[in-house]
């Protein structure tokens, strides 16, 4: 909405020339040139009506004369058709000019009204307030538009809408000053304003409305935004953390803020367990938090007038594995295993054995060799990023008594007090075969033992080490190490298997590549394995039974022999006593005689 200005008064029916300040004013003589014209003249009328002649042109001599009028010196030009031009239009040129054509019998006159216009400068908001305060009427600034003509009008706007004057809220005063030397106006409109909180970021501007040669126009100032100060009405506390959840060991920052402007710089923080508030800036930092930091946190203004609170939960996760570390048990024994979890939320627990996730938790009522391995109990809180715990159980199962076919191979060396003690020392079996391409041979070292033995290949004689062996997966205490060679002559290969218990060495002669050879296959099917195992168990059982029977027979025989020797001694002693008695009787008889 642009306020309208009243149109400058013009003489009705009179010809008017509109000119721009500083341009050239051109006024044609609107009379028809009569016959017998002697000369033409221009004059202007003073406010009191008296004429002032300024230019003369003869129709016969064609000469032009300009009157000595200081305001128009060197500014006038009169053409042959009696058109008058005035250079560098001024506000003082707003007059009634008259063209006169003179003959011997008559004088003709035609008036022209001159209007001069000057666009004001773009308005500026000066003497701006540093800031505005709510509930306080204060000077916002002054809108100034300089050097305009005719005088215009100034309107204030807020966010693009007219700011209407309201008592004690928006007070507007317009002042117009005329420069006496130029006749130009400078307009100054001051605005006193009482802002509200909603005026924060509001854009204030002013518009000057003025008249130009073509009609009414406007020109607008640049918008200005003022900093509006208002008191705090609400306090807010928030937790600044890198994640949405907090766990033990994290750093936590509490931030307190007020919605006032400018915002408060100091607050009181209330920590669980503390009776008095802790004075601090708008932040309070806690490092390496523990579970006992869980609780309600508050903050307030320093005058305790406003307060807000929030609850912090410090998540934790404890894991207790029993037993843990390295545990050695004998085959057939029971081993209770428990993984106890204590956490701030429901935790997910799973077990891993030898890098493979288990479907169920381990339970050992009767330990077997395949139960040996590295067990990991791991737990996580899925809702809490980065919170997980794990503990490890390294289970070693040692043999006790005849258990497998392989154990029977060395039980004779392990009898102690009539018990056969089996340990997981490395056992080796080597095989060889010529590959189908006839260009190489595959040598396999089948290894069984626990803990898993380390395997090394060497060439007997030279002692060189072969590093290109490939191993199968270690399952139930068994695995294979394989090499592929193409010997040009006969060679002896040695397979060395070593773990914490013992070192086992086995050698195998391999013919040159030109001599094909086939050993027993590397893999045996499950049925044959089961039959061999059953046979092995039967053989071991028979052997152990015979040994126990022989042992029992030996003990019985030993006891019998011992008893026999004792009885013999008693008989000899009794016989000796009888002989002595006989000799005494003979001696007595001789004495009596």
Automatic annotation (TrEMBL):
Gene3D superfamilies: Immunoglobulins. InterPro entries: CD80_C2-set, Ig-like_dom, Ig-like_dom_sf, Ig-like_fold, Ig_sub, Ig_sub2, Ig_V-set, Surface_Rcpt/Adhesion_Mol. Keywords: Adaptive immunity, Cell adhesion, Cell membrane, Cell projection, Disulfide bond, Glycoprotein, Immunity, Immunoglobulin domain, Membrane, Repeat, Transmembrane, Transmembrane helix. Pfam families: C2-set_2, Ig_2, Ig_3. It is found in: Cell membrane; Cell projection, Axon; Cell projection, Dendrite. Residues 3-99, 111-220, 231-313, 332-394, 426-506 form the Ig-like domain. The keyword Transmembrane applies. It comes from Rhynochetos jubatus (kagu). GO terms for cellular component: axon; dendrite; plasma membrane. PROSITE patterns: IG_LIKE. It comes from the Eukaryota. This is CD166 antigen. One of its GO terms (biological process) is cell adhesion. The chain crosses the membrane at residues 538-560. The keyword Cell membrane applies. It is a single-pass type I membrane protein.
């Amino acid at each position: 909405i642009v306020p309208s200005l009243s149109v400058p008064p013009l003489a009705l029916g009179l010809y008017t020339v509109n000119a721009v300040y500083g341009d050239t004013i051109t006024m044609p003589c609107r009379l028809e040139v009569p016959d017998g014209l002697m000369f033409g003249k221009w004059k202007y009328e003073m406010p009191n009506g008296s004429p002032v002649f300024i230019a003369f042109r003869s129709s016969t001599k064609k000469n032009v004369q300009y009157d000595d009028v200081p305001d128009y010196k060197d500014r006038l030009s009169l053409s042959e058709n009696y058109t008058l031009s005035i250079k560098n239009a001024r506000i003082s040129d707003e007059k009634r000019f008259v063209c006169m054509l003179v003959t011997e019998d008559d004088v003709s006159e035609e008036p022209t009204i001159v209007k001069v216009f000057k666009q004001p400068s773009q308005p500026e908001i000066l003497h701006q307030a540093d800031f505005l305060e709510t509930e306080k009427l204060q000077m916002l600034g002054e809108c100034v538009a300089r050097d305009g003509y005719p005088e215009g009008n100034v309107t204030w706007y807020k966010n693009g809408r007219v700011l209407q004057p309201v008592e004690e809220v928006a007070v507007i005063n317009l002042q117009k000053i005329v420069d006496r030397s130029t006749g130009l106006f400078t307009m100054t409109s001051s605005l006193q304003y009482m802002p509200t909180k909603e005026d924060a970021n509001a854009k204030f501007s002013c518009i000057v409305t003025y008249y130009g040669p073509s009609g009414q126009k406007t020109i607008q100032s640049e918008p200005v935004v003022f900093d509006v100060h208002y008191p705090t009405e609400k306090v807010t506390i928030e937790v600044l953390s890198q994640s949405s959840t907090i766990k033990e060991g994290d750093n936590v920052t509490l931030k307190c803020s007020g919605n006032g402007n400018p915002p408060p710089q100091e607050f009181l923080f209330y920590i669980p367990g503390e009776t008095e508030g802790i004075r601090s800036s708008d932040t309070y930092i806690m490092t390496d938090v523990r579970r006992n930091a869980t609780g309600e946190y508050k903050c307030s203004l320093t005058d305790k007038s406003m307060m807000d609170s929030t609850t912090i939960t410090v998540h934790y996760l404890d894991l207790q594995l029993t037993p843990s570390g390295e545990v050695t048990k004998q085959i057939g024994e029971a081993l209770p295993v428990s993984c106890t979890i204590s956490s701030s939320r429901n935790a997910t627990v799973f077990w891993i054995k030898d890098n493979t996730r288990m479907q169920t938790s381990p339970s050992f009522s009767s330990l077997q060799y395949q139960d040996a391995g590295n067990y990991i109990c791991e737990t996580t809180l899925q809702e809490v990023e980065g919170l997980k715990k794990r503990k490890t159980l390294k289970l070693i199962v040692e043999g006790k008594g005849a258990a497998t076919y392989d154990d029977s191979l060395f039980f004779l060396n392990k009898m102690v007090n009539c018990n056969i003690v089996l340990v997981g020392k490395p056992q080796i079996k080597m095989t060889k075969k010529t590959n189908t391409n006839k260009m190489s041979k595959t040598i396999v070292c089948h290894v069984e033992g626990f803990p898993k033995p380390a395997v090394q290949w060497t060439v007997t004689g030279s002692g060189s080490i072969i590093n290109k062996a490939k191993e199968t997966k270690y399952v139930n205490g068994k695995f294979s190490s394989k090499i592929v060679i193409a010997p040009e002559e006969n060679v002896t290969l040695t397979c060395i298997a070593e773990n914490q218990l013992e070192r086992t060495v086995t050698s195998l002669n391999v013919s040159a590549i030109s001599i094909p050879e086939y050993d027993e296959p590397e893999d045996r099917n499950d049925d044959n394995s089961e039959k061999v195992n059953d046979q092995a168990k039967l053989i071991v059982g028979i052997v152990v039974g015979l040994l126990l029977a022989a042992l029992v027979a030996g003990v019985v025989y030993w006891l019998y022999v011992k008893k026999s020797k004792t009885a013999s001694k008693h008989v000899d002693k009794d016989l000796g006593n009888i002989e002595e008695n006989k000799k005494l009787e003979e001696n007595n008889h001789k004495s009596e005689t």
